[in-house]
Known about the structure:
Elements: H1 3-9, H2 36-40, H3 55-68, E1 72-76, H4 79-90, E2 96-100, H5 105-117, E3 121-125, E4 141-147, H6 159-168, E5 172-176, E6 194-198, E7 212-216, H7 219-222, H8 224-231, H9 238-248, H10 251-270, E8 275-279, H11 289-295, E9 302-307, H12 312-320, E10 337-341, E11 357-362, H13 368-385
Parallel strand pairs: 2-3, 2-4, 4-5, 5-6
Antiparallel strand pairs: 1-7, 6-7, 8-9, 9-11, 10-11
Helix pairs in contact: 1-3, 3-9, 4-5, 12-13
Bound molecules: pyridoxal-5'-phosphate.
Amino acid sequence: xxxxxxxxxxxxxxxxxxxxxxxxxxxxxxxxxxxxxxxxxxxxxxxxxxxxxxxxxxxxxxxxxxxxxxxxxxxxxxxxxxxxxxxxxxxxxxxxxxxxxxxxxxxxxxxxxxxxxxxxxxxxxxxxxxxxxxxxxxxxxxxxxxxxxxxxxxxxxxxxxxxxxxxxxxxxxxxxxxxxxxxxxxxxxxxxxxxxxxxxxxxxxxxxxxxxxxxxxxxxxxxxxxxxxxxxxxxxxxxxxxxxxxxxxxxxxxxxxxxxxxxxxxxxxxxxxxxxxxxxxxxxxxxxxxxxxxxxxxxxxxxxxxxxxxxxxxxxxxxxxxxxxxxxxxxxxxxxxxxxxxxxxxxxxxxxxxxxxxxxxxxxxxxxxxxxxxxxxxxxxxxxxxx
Length: 387
Ligand SMILES: Cc1ncc(COP(=O)(O)O)c(C=O)c1O
């Protein structure tokens, strides 16, 4: 099945539900068993207690596992909980893990606080390291955590080279696949063992629910992750699962629009005198472009750029008058967003050397001409208020 058919149908079983197309929203904690024998066999039942999964969660997990090319999946209440639960399931006291320096900041925070408390040491590596990761692997390295492209700065990583080196040393490769959404990037086919996604972004797609999903390639090796995640009591509310399933069905029309408009706006920004850099791997002169072309089939609507102007009053003049670009955390919804960033505040192995004001933009589904007009007026205000 091609991905557009898969996101449309995977996980649905209409004739198990009176022909109803969408999986019903099962609100359930207690599940009843008709006989004592069935109750005693509950462990083998696919549905045995609400927290352990319902037909609604199974439908979403089956669909995302199929999209990522995995053999199993587990859903969690946020993207961050998918990351923290899966990393926790893959490490033990005394381990060392390697995390890309370009990782989403709360991933780093978790490593520096919770993991550290349990005697797991996280070391950060340059996202450009590729096969050079070999030199950082220690006998106790259990996990290599990849996020490609990276948060805020959008460097593409050489996942196959990293995975080969990690596997030689027996380490597990976990990839945060939120940007590629399982639609434009298939880390499991490129060597990762497990992917995690903030379904909050492009799966949900409407900025109205938090959700995470972890998918593993090999259920024999990693199927235990479901048990570990469930042992932590992690489960998702049924309405959020439903919103994610509903969002997923239109991913195949939303993402190409984010890609097309995003790239058009990246090119437009690049030509503006106020902008010194645009970090978008689909741009031909982006340092990650060759890897992106090799490993990705498209790009999401999220990328970065840098303004020459660093005066904060001028920046406020630009931002406060925007009509279509909202200011707020997260991304992946239908709407455009724009926020200032400071990449150096969340890296330690490398320094972001580019001078200027970092920005992160999410190009939504609005008409790109309206978005460009909004940005143009903003850049004009920036220029007029600047020093
Ligand atoms: C790359 C990436 N991973 C994970 C997350 C976490 O997702 P959530 O907000 O659902 O916890 C985010 C959120 O912004 C993200 O950008």
